[in-house]
């Protein structure tokens, strides 16, 4: 049986995540389940794509990834299952399923095919996506979900200026930007509206406590960090705030 990885914006305060686990256990008893996160910003597809990208290479090669970040629930947006290599992504067709590029296969998810009755207008995670993910996990053919679609028709993630903004603040207060370290100039530091990091370091331990630095985080993105502290609290930066790159040798005020 395939493992199922969950990524949602449900949080853990309410019953929604527990219900997803209950449905998955009911439909695919004994399936291994991995909680990537349930702290995606509410309805924020770009944030979900970032979380998925951070986890993707670490997931089992045959994982079914259930992504329920669905600001369009109750509308005409498609419900889909997308095969990307050996993994499946199950969720609304709002950009997450196409986040890895055009999938190898794309299938619709249709309530009548699942034979579970009409889904509610507001909880497709429970009534549509979790049952579909469970079917794939237990080895059912994708054709039991719905109709095969053109893989090129999968929605792509929304495009904007995320690359030059803070896209996530983690629980340590590190301000992670959309700038990939691999494409940034070597040694470049990060600046924001009223400040700039002191220097670029390879890890948190390469600067004194309290220093604001730029480094490449585990996500592969550049981030602003405060050694043994919170960069967000120190700088006031929040998700969505603009940043820029400062070349290594450029003087700053």
Topology:
Elements: E1 4-8, H1 16-27, E2 33-37, H2 45-56, E3 64-68, E4 79-84, E5 87-92, E6 105-108, H3 111-114, H4 124-137, E7 148-149, E8 166-169, E9 175-180, E10 189-192, E11 195-196, E12 199-200, E13 212-216, E14 221-226, H5 231-235, E15 244-246
Parallel strand pairs: 1-2, 1-3, 3-5, 12-13
Antiparallel strand pairs: 4-5, 4-6, 6-7, 8-9, 9-14, 10-11, 10-15, 13-14
Helix pairs in contact: 1-4
Summarize the structure.
The chain is 19% helix and 26% strand.
Structural class: alpha/beta
Helix count equals: 5
Q: What separation lies between the terminal Cα atoms? A: 58 Å
Shape: elongated
Order of H and E elements: EHEHEEEEHHEEEEEEEEHE
Tally of strands: 15
Largest sheet: 7 strands, mixed
Strand line-up across the major sheet: 2-1-3-5-4-6-7
Supply Rg: 20 Å
- What would you call the quaternary organization? single chain
Q: Beta-strand level of the residues, as a percent range?
A: 25-35%
Task: Explain this structure.
The structure is a single chain. The chain contains five helices and 15 strands. With 253 residues, the chain is an alpha/beta fold. The chain has a seven-stranded mixed β-sheet, with helices on both faces. The chain has a five-stranded mixed β-sheet with strand order 8-9-14-13-12. Strand 8 and strand 9 (175-180) form a beta hairpin. Helix 1 (16-27) packs parallel to helix 4. It is elongated, with a radius of gyration of 20 Å.
């Amino acid at each position: 049986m395939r493992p199922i990885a969950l990524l949602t914006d449900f949080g853990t305060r309410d019953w929604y995540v527990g219900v997803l686990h209950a449905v998955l256990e009911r439909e695919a008893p004994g399936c291994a389940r991995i909680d990537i996160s349930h702290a995606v910003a509410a309805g924020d597809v770009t944030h979900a794509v970032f979380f998925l990208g951070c986890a993707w290479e670490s997931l089992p090669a045959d994982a079914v990834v259930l992504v329920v970040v669905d600001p369009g629930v109750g509308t005409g947006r498609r419900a889909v299952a997308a095969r990307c290599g050996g993994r499946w992504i199950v969720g609304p067709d709002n950009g997450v399923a196409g986040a890895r590029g055009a999938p190898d296969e794309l299938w619709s998810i249709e309530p009548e095919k699942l034979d579970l009755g009409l889904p509610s207008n507001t909880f497709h995670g429970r009534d549509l996506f979790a049952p579909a993910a469970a079917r794939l996990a237990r080895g059912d053919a994708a054709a039991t979900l719905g109709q095969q679609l053109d893989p090129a028709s999968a929605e792509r993630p929304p495009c904007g200026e995320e690359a030059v903004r803070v896209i996530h603040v983690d629980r340590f207060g590190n301000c992670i930007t959309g700038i990939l370290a691999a494409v940034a100039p070597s040694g470049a530091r990060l600046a924001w509206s009223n400040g700039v990091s002191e220097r670029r370091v390879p890890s948190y331990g390469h600067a004194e406590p309290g220093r604001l630095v730029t480094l490449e985080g585990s996500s592969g993105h550049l981030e602003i960090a405060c050694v043994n502290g919170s960069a967000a609290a120190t700088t006031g930066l929040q998700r969505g705030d603009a940043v820029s790159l400062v070349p290594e040798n450029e003087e700053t005020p």
